[in-house]
Amino acid sequence: MKKIIPIVGKYAALVSRELGHWYGNGVAYGKNIVALSLGSVFRCSDRELPDELDDRRLLRLLGYQNPPDHSIFSKVRKEVGEEKIGKVAETIIHEIYRDKLVSMVAIDSTFVPYYFDNDEDAKWGYVTLKRKEQEILREKTQKGIKKGYKLHVIYDVETGIPLYWVVLPANVNDKKYSRNSSTT
Fold first, then answer.
1. Sign of the C-alpha dihedral, residues 115, 71, 58, 3?
2. Which alpha helices (DSSP H) does 25-184 contain, by range?
């Protein structure tokens, strides 16, 4: 991780300068973007992020003298946007796995609901229902069928780090998707 942070930090500083944060050539604000991106990789909330960075001994490496208040992360996230944070997270993952062989991967999907009635891309598909939903639908005929999307994630089993993800209509099964993505 010590080799990765400076590489990713340069990219985050560039994003910072694009947003008008020039103090320290964008590095001062960029460390917050890198921290948020690491939070995405480690799958922790903004509230949990300072403790996660501290536990992994990354605070000093990122340039923090003391653990930051979690509220700074929600402010930065709102300004920077999920797309740019995701791009920095992708850069981190790419650097982690640059010369690494992954011994075992798994694929999983999560249902994502649709929000607009005229959403033509959303499809009906089978999903795993939560226990409460299963109890409610016990009498219904359409068990486990919902309209929306699925977030398909391929991740490293050893580290739990997502390697690839894509959002597809809910009618696309993990098995069908994994066969198609194995050639890419």
1. positive
2. 27-42, 49-55, 59-62, 71-80, 82-96, 131-136, 174-181
Q: Are 4 and 57 in contact (CB under 8 A)?
A: no
d(CA 160, CA 93): 12
Distance CA 155, CA 133 (A): 27
Which residue is it, tokens 């990354």? 58
Grouped pLDDT means (10 residues each) for the chain, 184 residues: 74 80 78 90 91 90 90 91 86 84 87 88 81 63 74 87 86 70 52
- As a whole number of angstroms, the distance between CA 120 and CA 66 comes to 49
d(CA 60, CA 28): 13
Residue 140 DSSP SS3: coil
The tokens describing 8, both together, are 């990713």
